[in-house]
Design a protein that fits this description.
Blueprint (H helix, E strand, L loop, with lengths): L1 H20 L1 H30 L9 H20 L2 H9 L1 H7 L4 H27 L11 H23 L5 H17 L15 H5 L2 H14 L6 H24 L5
Length: 258
C-alpha cells in the first residue's frame, strides 16, 4: 500500500505546487470567467429578463443563471488543459523518469489526475465566491455538493486531457485538438443559454455532452432550477468520471517514450 500511496501523493503535490509557482497562469485562469460574468453576463441580463428565460428558468435573472455555469466552465477548462503538462514532461524528459521508475504507474497517473482536479476545483470555488456579490440569492449551503460535482467534472476532463496528451507529441498539436473540442462542448452544455431553446436536431448532441450534466447539477444546487433531476446528473457524472479515469490509467500504463 505504501508503494501506491507515496507516488500518488508525490504526483498530486507536484501538480498543485507546479500550478501555484506559475503566477501568470494563476492570474490568466481567472480573467476569462470574470470577463464572461462582467461583460457577457451584465450585457445579456436585460435580454434574458424580457424573454430569454424559458421552461424551468422563467423569472430567473441571467446572472443567477450564468454564474454557476461559469464557475463550472472554469473547472472544465482548467482540468481539460491540464493534459498539456504531460507534453511538457515528455519534452523535458520527466515523463521518461516516471515511466521507468520502480513505482506503480497507476498511482502516478491517479495522483496526477487528482492533482489537476484539485487545482480546477479550487479555481471553480474562487470564481463562485467572486461572483457571489452579483448573485446574493445563491444557496451557498450546497457548497459541499458543488465541490462533489466539480470534482467529478474535473476528474472526467483531466482524464480526457491525459488521454489526448499521451497520443500527442507537440504542445501545438494538443492545443489544436483541445480548442476544437472545447468550444462546442462549452456552447452545447447549457452554460450560456437554456438547452430547452436549442433546436431539436441539436439536443441529442447536447445530451451526449458530459458537461451538460455538470452545469445542470450546479445550477440546481446554487439557484434551485435545472432541466434534469440532481440524481440523474450525479449518476451520469459519476459513471463518466470512472470510465474516463480508467481509460486514462490504461493509456498511461501502455505509454512509451520514443
Amino acid at each position: 500500500m505504501k508503494d501506491f500511496i507515496d507516488p500518488f501523493i508525490a504526483m498530486w503535490y507536484r501538480q498543485v505546487k507546479r500550478f501555484l509557482r506559475a503566477k501568470p497562469r494563476v492570474v490568466a485562469t481567472f480573467m476569462q470567467p470574470i470577463f464572461w460574468l462582467l461583460f457577457f453576463g451584465l450585457g445579456f441580463a436585460a435580454a434574458f429578463r424580457t424573454g430569454g428565460a424559458v421552461g424551468p428558468f422563467m423569472g430567473l435573472d441571467y446572472l443567477a443563471f450564468l454564474l454557476p455555469g461559469v464557475a463550472l466552465m472554469t473547472v472544465f477548462v482548467s482540468s481539460f488543459m491540464s493534459g498539456i503538462s504531460v507534453i511538457w514532461d515528455k519534452e523535458f524528459g520527466y515523463l521518461k523518469v516516471v515511466l521507468v521508475a520502480p513505482s506503480s504507474r497507476k498511482a502516478s497517473i491517479l495522483g496526477r489526475s487528482m492533482g489537476d482536479a484539485t487545482i480546477a476545483l479550487i479555481q471553480g470555488l474562487i470564481i463562485l465566491i467572486i461572483g457571489y456579490p452579483l448573485v446574493p440569492s445563491m444557496n451557498m449551503g450546497n457548497i459541499h455538493l458543488f465541490i462533489l460535482v466539480s470534482l467529478l467534472v474535473s476528474i472526467s476532463f483531466a482524464s480526457i486531457g491525459i488521454i489526448i496528451a499521451t497520443k500527442m507529441k507537440t504542445i501545438e498539436g494538443f492545443q489544436l485538438i483541445v480548442n476544437l473540442i472545447t468550444t462546442p462542448l462549452l456552447f452545447l452544455s447549457g452554460i450560456f443559454y437554456p438547452i430547452d431553446v436549442a433546436p431539436d436536431w441539436l439536443k441529442p448532441v447536447i445530451l451526449a455532452n458530459p458537461l451538460t450534466y455538470g452545469v445542470d447539477a450546479v445550477r440546481l444546487l446554487m439557484v434551485g432550477k435545472g432541466t434534469f433531476a440532481f440524481t440523474t446528473d450525479l449518476i451520469c457524472l459519476a459513471v463518466l468520471s470512472v470510465v474516463f479515469l480508467l481509460i486514462a490509467v490504461y493509456q498511461f500504463e501502455k505509454a512509451t517514450i520514443d
